[in-house]
Write a structure and sequence with these properties.
Elements lengths: L2 H9 L4 H7 L4 H26 L3 H48 L6 H11 L4 H15 L5 H11 L2 H15 L4 H60 L3
């Protein structure tokens, strides 16, 4: 690891690298994002130093803008991460809901059901994970590990992992219809939970909209006030 890469790691927020990896970005993408943030931050600091030569008020204002732009880029990535998680959970919930009716069919096996689902699922990461699960089931029959890995990669939630563990139990006890009922209940709860989270997220963004407008007006007003006070202060100084 080079010196600059160490700097990028030190300046990064604790969960930034984890979020990018969860969204399946490479380590190079992390360094690329941090490099852009550092360059922009450095340019803003140079501009702040230049403005402070004219007035300390401009220097303070420039420093505040530097911090705001640094944090805004992090919040943008965090927003993208939330959207990614929502979509991933919804796709997994759709997969789980589609799976249940097939399991009620006479003579249905998980292997045959999964292959039928491949033809119905849209192109997504969940479909890629399902293809990998089918291959792992052939290579490791009766093993719970492929099911656990599918839950971790396709869903990324404890509920998804628990669902897949329960599905593995059904495979081992194929005549127990009560397990299918439990799977259906879990799939419904997970789907409604994801919908509720999306509604809460959208409402939160809508509720913050008036606040953002007010903050923009305050920034303009504060800039005007600083300019007036700076001008008055210079007039009071002896010439």
């Amino acid at each position: 690891m080079t010196t600059m890469e160490k700097v990028y790691h030190r300046l990064a927020e604790k969960d930034l690298r984890k979020m990018l990896h969860r969204m399946r970005y490479s380590e190079d993408k992390f360094y690329e994002i941090q490099k852009k943030r550092v360059i922009r931050g450095a340019l803003m600091l140079l501009l702040t130093i230049f403005l402070s030569l004219f007035s300390w008020v401009y220097g303070v204002f420039g420093l505040i803008l530097t911090v705001v732009q640094w944090m805004s880029q992090y919040r943008s990535i965090k927003g993208s991460y939330r959207n990614f998680i929502f979509k991933q959970q919804l796709n997994f919930s759709k997969f789980a809901r589609m799976l249940i009716p097939y399991l009620y069919e006479d003579g249905a096996t998980l292997y045959s059901v999964f292959n039928r689902l491949l033809n119905r699922l849209e192109e997504s990461y969940v479909k890629q994970c399902l293809e990998r699960l089918i291959i792992d089931m052939n290579n490791h029959p009766n093993s719970a590990i492929p099911f656990k890995e599918f839950g971790e990669t396709a869903s990324g939630t404890d509920e998804g992992v628990l669902f897949m563990h329960t599905l593995h139990d059904y495979q081992q006890n194929s005549f127990d219809r009560s397990i299918i009922q439990e799977l259906g209940r879990m799939a419904s709860e997970d789907l409604f939970k994801g919908i509720d989270e999306i509604i809460t997220f959208k409402l939160k963004k809508f509720n913050l909209f008036p606040t953002k407008l007010t903050m923009i007006n305050l920034i303009i007003a504060m800039g005007y006030m600083f300019s007036v006070y700076s001008h008055l202060f210079k007039d009071l100084l002896p010439k």
